[in-house]
Amino acid sequence: MTTLKRSLGLTDAIMIGLAAMIGSGVFSALGPAASLAGPYLILSVCIAGLAASFNASSMARLSAAIPQAGGGYIYGRKLLSHGTGFMAGWCFVCGKSISCSAMALTAGHYLVPQHPKETAFIILLSLTLVNLRGIQKTAFLSKLITLFVIAILLLVIGLVFSSEPNAYPTLLYPNKVSISGILGAASIMFFAFAGYARIATLGEEVMQPKQTIPKAIMIALSIVLALYIFLAIGLSRVLTPELLSKSQAPLATAVSALGHETFSRIVRLTAGIGSIGVLVSLLVGVSRTLFAMARHQDIPMLFSRLDQKHQVPYIAEITVAVLVALCILFLDIGSAIALSSFNILTYYAIANLSALKVSKEHWYQSNILSFLGLLTCFVLVFNLPKDSLILGILLAGFGLTFYCLRKKYISLTKQHENE
User: Fold this and answer.
1) From CA 376, how far away is CA 110, in angstroms rounded?
2) What is the DSSP letter of 194?
3) Backbone torsion region of residue 259, taken as left when φ is above 0, otherwise alpha when ψ lies between -120 and 50, otherwise beta
4) Are the C-beta atoms of residues 302 and 315 closer than 8 Å to each other?
């Protein structure tokens, strides 16, 4: 069986996880979430963070028990059934390919707003070439980008907390906020926390994975949760709920509102760079899931081929780039985030089901957390916008049909060979 080289340490894994999370929520999800939650955005962020912690607990247990490339796809396949594993892999590939397009478009809108799609295509091509050079190149680039973005975000937090808070009364918010709206906003904000799964998908490339992966997941999630909570509180101090919900660049808008135009431009540059950082690790995670699915013959074996020099699944990498390019062409940022959230929540629901099946030998976290993770996935997914929910169900149905047809084809082929 084709295997990947173990070359990532704890710091590398944490940085890839941080790069996958930091940027997506801050720079693209806060606006759509605020439009649903209004003045209760902070509550939605906390709900999303709580749901993410439940799911992170399951992923940590699973990655310790089964330290292989593929994440939820492998967990579902080994602990539940081949079909369930395939659906986890399908949802991950679909959801994260769509996420990649959202991040590329976000970077394009921030860096070159006059030509966002063209810029997104150039960024996608450049990062694909970097990833084809090997996983260590990816980890190094993720470290540089992530450290820079965290430094700027800390400066923004300091700036908004040192300002006078706005006195906008919650009762004057023009849009009616319901529990469904708060949960819908939490569903969208969950998109911002889902990056820790990228660490699990790299399980075969991490040194001492049983110890490293669980630590990396929990450390990365804790750092991001703290940053998001402080940013949500800080933005709510500076911007009214209505302004926050309408802003396409809430951090830059908040800094501008405080009269710091120069720093606002730096924040916009940071948003573009942060989105690129997310995209780097997203592309890696999706390609490794395709690699794992091909290795187990759920998709053609062609996708498991490795480049002999750099030891990367180059056909899977190129295929992911093509899928993302198509998403960039046909989707906008808001619809991409909502549709991605459906697929990722479904993926984590399968991961939580898998965690409930893990042998007692690996139970260092309570099984209750996996059940709570499963429950929150169902609650959040059914509070997504209806259009995204319907489209997500259709996409999942297409994947299930593909699986059934391929299974039948393989069965007929083996039967023909035996005759």
Assistant:
1) 33
2) G
3) left
4) yes
Is residue 234 within 8 A of residue 157, CB to CB? The reply is yes
What does DSSP assign to residue 311? Answer: -
Residue 26 C-beta-side C-alpha neighbours within 13 Å? 38
Two tokens, residue 185: 């906003």
Q: Provide φ and ψ at 8, rounded to 5°.
A: -105, 130
Q: Under CATH, to which class is 10-410 assigned?
A: mainly alpha
Per-residue pLDDT of the chain (419 residues; tens, 9 = 90+): 455 566 677 777 787 778 777 765 677 778 788 888 877 888 999 999 889 888 888 887 887 777 776 678 888 888 999 899 999 989 988 988 898 898 898 888 878 878 889 999 999 998 888 777 765 555 566 677 778 888 888 998 988 888 777 654 444 455 666 888 899 889 888 888 877 666 665 656 667 766 777 788 788 888 888 888 888 888 888 887 777 777 767 888 888 888 888 888 888 888 888 788 778 777 877 887 788 788 878 888 888 888 777 677 888 889 999 999 999 998 888 788 889 989 999 999 999 999 888 765 545 546 888 889 999 999 999 988 888 899 999 999 999 999 988 888 887 877 777 66
Which residues have a Cβ under 8 Å from the Cβ of 4 and sit 6 or more positions away? 69, 135, 204, 205, 288, 291, 306, 311
d(CA 412, CA 265): 60
From residue 313, how far is each of 12, 200, 320, 340, 402 by CA, in Å?
20, 17, 11, 24, 23
Among 354, 304, 338, CA closest to 77: 354
3-state secondary structure (DSSP) of residue 300? coil
All structural domains of the chain with their residue ranges? 10-410
Distance, in Å, from the CA atom of 63 to the CA atom of 215, rounded to the nearest integer, reads: 11
Question: What whole-number distance in Å separates Cα of residue 293 and Cα of residue 287?
Answer: 10
The SS3 assignment for 69 reads: strand
Q: Which two tokens stand for residue 209?
A: 């994975």
Q: What is the pTM of this model?
A: 0.79
